[in-house]
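Slide 14.
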Amino acid sequence: MADKKTILVTGANGQLGSEMQVIAAAYPDYNFLFVTKEALAIDDEAAVRYYFSCHAIDCCVNCAAYTAVDKAETETEKAMQINAIAVGNLAKICAEQKAMFIHISTDYVFDGTATEPYKEDDQVSPVNFYGASKLKGEELAIQNNPDSIIIRTSWVYSSFGNNFVKTMLRLMSERESINVVSDQQGCPTYAADLAAAIMQIIESKVQLNGSTIFNYSNTGAINWHQFAEAIQALSKSNCIVLPIPAAKYPTPAKRPSYSVMDTTKIQQTFNLAIPPWKDSLVKCLHLLGK
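Slide 15: predicted structure.
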């Protein structure tokens, strides 16, 4: 039997990294290496190069990211180090080692002024620094590795880590009513579904021509208030969920008002079936005991 291929997953403790650890059990033909920022400083090129020299990496899935959107407005250097410089390091070394490189990006590379779902080649124009740092990461990945695969995703949640679903469940257990923004539209992404899609891409025999960007989210577009209403109904909470405009809930970083993405390309390229957002929400809530 041929040697097992080795998959390196960065950001191991994040939502997607945690879901990759769960799904790894279903892929015994692969050797998985999961690293946290403590185990491997991906913004340190020498450290990354040394790590790759010690392990025969066939594929790197970069789930690591600086995701504190509001803090990124002031912690600009930190955001840029992780979301851009580190991505360039990983991309470059994967190219040198002939390893597949998959990088996770965001819907926040778009400005949110569209009126129909964003396609991969639509104009990018981030409205906050987090989005700008992620866009720079995409650019460095493509510049340093002509075969980079970039997956833009949105509204990620999971039974792991901190996210909108878990925050809503906590607030609904503490309060009689909550206010949720109703004029920002997008698509939730269950991290477990994205992890499954990543493994399908890794296993695929599809030959991509150069660097390729894909959009991935669960199907169906909603606003945050509708998402919260679904969480409330499915968890059988008595909390009242009230809609408010984003203007009534100011944040340091501006958010795009519309970030629905067209996922046709990834579905057709890899023959990928993407679950509807509500079906996946039910699964996540079940894992959370709701």
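Speaker note: The domain at 5-162+190-218+261-274 is CATH 3.40.50.720 (Rossmann fold).
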